[in-house]
Amino acid sequence: MNGTPVQVRGDHPHLLSALREELGITSPKDGCSPTGQCGCCTVHIDGKPVVSCQQPLAKVAGRSVLTLEGVDAGERQRYASAFAACGGLQCGFCIPGIVMRAKAQVDKKGADLERSDMERHLGAHLCRCTGYVKVLDAIECVAKGTECAPTQPGGIGSSGVRYEAEELALGDRGYVDDLRVPGMLHAGLRLTDHARADIVRIDTSRALAAPGVTAVFTAADIPGELRVGIIYKDWPILIPEGGRTSYAGDVLAIVVAETRQQARAAAEMVDVEYIVHPPITDPEVAVASASSKDIAVWGTDSNVLSVSEYRRGDVESALASSAHVVRETFQTQRIEHAFLEPESTLAVPDTERGTMHVYSGGQGIWDDRNDIAAVLGVERDRVTVELITNGGAFGGKEDMSNQAQTALAAWLLQRPVKCTLSREESFRIHAKRHPIRMEYEAGCDTEGRLTALRVRAIGDSGAYASVGMKVLERMAGHASGPYRLPAVDVRAVAARTNNPVCGAFRGFGANQAQFAMEGVMDRLAARVGLSGWEIRKRNVIHPGEIWGPGQRMDDGCLGAEACLDRIKPAYDAAVAAGKAVGLGLGLKNSGLGNGFREWTGAVVRFNSHDNTVEVRHGWTEMGQGINTVALQVAVEELGIEPSRIRVIIDTTRELGIGQTTGSRGTLMGAGAVKSACEAARAGGCQLDVDYLGEYIVDWTQKLGTVENPTIHSTFGYAAQMVVMDRDTADIDRVVAVHDVGRAVNPVLCEGQIEGSVHMGLGYALTEDFPHDPSTGFPTAAKLRDLGIIRPKDMPEVEVVLVEAPQPNAPYGIKGVGEIGLVPTAGAVAAALHELDGEWRTVLPMRPRGGSDD
Ligand code: FES
Ligand code: FES
Q: What pTM, to 2 d.p., does this model score?
């Protein structure tokens, strides 16, 4: 092992387990063990790269294993510098494995290593953040020996390296599952066998008698609240005897043992007696059910989670008098986030003080703190939740997954407990992207100017509320895309079913709506005889005009037309070259809006003991770069060295307002840190003083309260163009022109967009997370079942940043987290139509057959 002979126990299921759990070697990450599908655990055995979760110990005995910990210091630095300098990582979870794969190729081929070769070798890896462009740039740098020294970030607008980039690249910056504390136990979860079943009896005796087991807990052991939830408290952390399950991810018992293997094995020995009911899995059937016996979700009284609707103008007569009318029904699919780091929580009680410290990778640690305290039945100030920068989230870590169960076990035992989900458990438990059925009816005049739009939509929200009602509200609000429309009539229903829970996922309903709206725009363009670009130009929203739900747009919306104008030369050139070209235009709000008062705080503190400057903010770093943004604002405002800054996120200060969601972290986080820096400057930057700053958005209005409500404070805009080769039917190129208001860090900003385009192409073409309607259970259990696009199948992506500043926003920032995949599916559908004349209505548009594709 890294040059030293070692002996390990023989009971590990694979080499990765021995490395991480016994030898404390944590640079190889566990993204999917034992399935061998993500590449995060790649190490070298006798010089060859292999995924260590697929290596039985017997096969490794007597051979030479190398991990990043054992690589020569100079070489480590070369990789770390290259990935940092090129922006070749975001959450970083996949990178140590990729570095080991790259090292094998660079060792073999040196400067002769071709980019296409490396793309092929990366087929054994998944990265959900970067879109691979900058990953390949970094590997090329090392292979060619190009000078690529990372530069520290300066103030706003500089492209310095990501906060902690080098440590992340080498796997040295720990994630929750990398943490170990003395006396730590491991928890495993017993999940339900049926999506809708009465729980008659839970028998823990066999599990309790299993080797290494310390305790088994059920709902009967909860001292406080049974149910948690971001908006509605409807999600039971454990289903009790006498209760009923509502989806495949429901938890029945927590088993705590000395090792993870023991805990997981014993969890399967918890015996459960059920009365099984047929699951309600069709959202239309669910909302049509009137009888109380047809309620899908235990503890609720309706299968209608929410109805979002608004009307402006006389849609009926506008459609009747339109020169052209298009009617189409679109259906989008359920999607799994597939962040590379499965959910993990470590809870450490302090018996003397009667408190508990929880390490979480969640997207809303103040919400987590409040719900955990409620479950334990204690005051909030006895629970601290500390964010450990996570390995990707994309909305999928907004709801608690295992935080409450882990905290409960630790609290009851008064010992540290860690629980890490397997990939299959992660699939079953956390919320997905909503499948939505959308009926669109839109008209235009003879010039192609939109006259009216009617939309009826139903989204399958699965069992528990999560933020499903807000997703359908956002889908409804964004139904008309970034266009001017005199008459609109929209109704969107969120249905409760026994399918996987659906909630937040990058784009939050805007993707679904704008796949449909862009499809409608292209159909109308064809009727009128306009190009895709021209019809968008004729209808794009301008300042002072009324958008969708009635909002009068401000100068921020200049970005929409700016993106269209900027993409025109490339669009014209591709059309002239005979390519099949599709264009999409989109917008995505930043912030919660809808009359919600959004507050966030930040603290700046000059520490006397070590000369560091603490910057505390309220947002979850999940690869998007909010910690780097916070650092850059502090550098900009205080003129201090970036190396002095430590960014901290925990609940020891009240800085949070809920979830890191809605593309608002950069906008609001920058505003709050700027305000804290101003307070520090005004106060003379005294040592060991908390300087508090805040950023508030309290000027949005709820739909229906005034004639033209300001639903959202800010929007980001993008025009994306997909270029297809008519002979091969492959996508050659994607051009993504994005208005971000102000690019705080252009390289990081580009990386966000490249990763979004990768995700957006998967959404458009291949990704799906199907379920069995007879059971409500997902039929995908492995990462390769999801249809995520591999590096060799990614087209060239060209990102162009446009800066049309948002009035009243700090530095003009708009937010870029979600908009990157909003126009993509529409652009792909248009390109495919150019190719073969077929209009597409269903996602994904090129579904793949299964694991081997
Ligand atoms: S953890 Fe081994 S390949 Fe994913
Ligand atoms: S950087 Fe690759 S998964 Fe996040």
A: 0.95
